[in-house]
Design a protein that fits this description.
Number of strands: 7
Helix content: 25-40%
Number of domains: 1
Strand content: 25-35%
Order of helices and strands: EHEEHEEEEHH
CATH topology: Secreted effector protein pipB2 fold
Length: 170
């Protein structure tokens, strides 16, 4: 079983002019006190928005785009967050996604022995991540970030909802 459960995301409304990457901007606007819960084969993993999701964001975007845009394929990501110390090997076909999670030997790593692998319907997998990406995109838009300021914002918009990021700074 795989699912993402997020409550109502309350964003920090200010932006930092020095933010130039998607991860920096996300860390500025995402709250410290809130987390996304990931259900993984009977294990609940907590992903903090500010310190896990913000550093994972670019990889999440690339994963969603890869799974959504190609009929079959594979993708490997060594999640950069120390709060989520896993390497995922993702394979998909027209109907399902197969994910194998191998934990890195780090403090706080959850032992998934016997539960390393999940299979989930492709639409459910992509839909769960897209909902999270839409919430983050909303925070970034609400804070006034633009694609000229933040590298990767246009790709986030494409992964979250399709289309391109508005280029006007107004």
């Amino acid at each position: 079983m795989f699912a993402l459960k997020a409550g109502m995301l309350v964003c920090v409304a200010s932006r930092a002019e020095s933010d130039g990457t998607l991860n920096e901007a996300a860390q500025t606007v995402l709250p410290l006190e809130e987390s996304v819960l990931m259900e993984w084969n009977g294990v609940t993993l907590s992903l903090n928005y500010k310190y896990d999701i913000s550093v994972m964001l670019e990889d999440i975007v690339e994963l969603v785009l890869a799974v959504e845009k190609t009929g079959t394929g594979s993708y490997q990501v060594d999640w950069p967050s120390s709060g989520f110390p896993f390497r995922w090997t993702v394979k998909w076909n027209e109907s399902e996604v197969d994910v194998r999670a191998d934990s890195r030997d780090e403090p706080g790593a959850v032992n998934l022995t016997g539960r390393e692998r999940v299979r989930v319907e492709r639409g459910s997998f992509v839909g769960a991540w897209k909902a999270l990406l839409r919430a983050v995109l909303s925070c970034l838009e609400g804070a006034g970030y633009t694609s000229q300021q933040v590298h990767g914002l246009a790709r986030l918009r494409t992964a979250a909802i399709g289309g391109s990021w508005p280029t006007a700074t107004g």
